[in-house]
From TrEMBL:
GO MF, one annotated term: nucleic acid binding
InterPro entries: RNase_H-like (IPR053151), RNase_H-like_dom_plant (IPR044730), RNaseH-like_sf (IPR012337), RNaseH_domain (IPR002156), RNaseH_sf (IPR036397)
One Pfam family matching this protein: RVT_3
Residue span(s) of domain RNase H type-1: 3-114
SUPFAM superfamilies the UniProt entry points to: Ribonuclease H-like
Name of this chain's protein: RNase H type-1 domain-containing protein
């Protein structure tokens, strides 16, 4: 999120780390938590588009994960998007939410930085060389040091 725009991005992979679908978008409330929840909502919608029924949602927002696990109530500004997510969860056989460090969420961050003026745009591989490089590092389980 910057002064001029806020974006979302996400990537949907199979259990081998292969990209099935990716998305980027913008718009909505200028709140980091709202954008994180909106990205999760778009990821769930994308998962349904490719007929995934068992998914794991990884987010670098611990607060978003806690809200969706029912450990924390959403602020009123995020109540609608949270309700939309919970309604969509009924469409899946299995969904789990995990918190990941930002360093391991680089693909989604990169996609968010590419946000267009569209609400959300879904696309399938081939990916840009930068995004493909990030995906390949993730598949190799690259270790990132935190200081």
């Amino acid at each position: 999120m910057s002064e001029s725009r806020c974006g979302i991005g996400g990537i949907i992979r199979d259990s081998n780390g292969e990209v099935q679908l990716a998305f980027t978008g913008s718009g909505g409330l200028r709140s980091v938590l709202f954008q994180e929840l909106k990205a999760i909502l778009c990821g769930l919608k994308g998962s349904l588009k490719i007929q995934s029924s068992r998914i794991q949602v990884a987010s670098d927002s611990l607060r978003a994960v806690n809200i969706l696990k029912g450990k924390e109530s959403p602020p009123w500004q995020c109540a609608k998007v949270t309700a939309a997510i919970k309604k969509l969860l009924r469409e899946f056989v299995s969904v789990s939410f995990v918190h990941v460090f930002r360093e391991t969420n680089r693909a989604a961050d990169h996609l968010a930085s590419l946000a267009t003026d569209h609400e959300v745009e879904y696309f399938v591989p081939p990916l840009t060389s930068v995004l493909m490089s990030i995906v390949e590092e993730d598949k190799k389980e690259t270790v990132y040091l935190r200081f």
